[in-house]
Amino acid sequence: MPWHRGRGSGRPKVDVALEHKAQKQLKKGVGILKVAKTLGLGTGTVQRIKQEIEPVLSPTPRRHSRAGAATWLAPSNGAGRGGRWR
To answer: ∠ CA(72), CA(78), CA(83), 5° rounding?
Structure first.
């Protein structure tokens, strides 16, 4: 028989009123650390709340030029002469 039968297992949930206060402050533009400190919440909790109110943006692929890649791939002293790679 599991020990948690009839009881909730895991960490207790944050009070709903505190979550709403955090959401209001985050929407105003207050930083995560400031919100966490003023409300007595953990920074991870505030990050979770912020993720829930902001839509998740899909990452956009970065565009690299071939010329830019060649500058850091080329050896500084020439190939075969023991040059260091940049």
So the answer is: 80
Is the CB of residue 31 less than 8 Å from the CB of residue 39? no
Structural domain including 50 reads: 14-56
Alpha helices in 1-86 (DSSP H): 16-28, 32-39, 43-53, 66-73
pTM check: above 0.90 = no
Whether residue 23 lies inside any domain: the answer is: yes
pLDDT tens string, the chain, 86 residues long: the values are 556 677 777 888 899 999 999 999 999 999 999 999 999 999 999 999 999 988 755 566 666 665 555 555 555 555 555 556 55
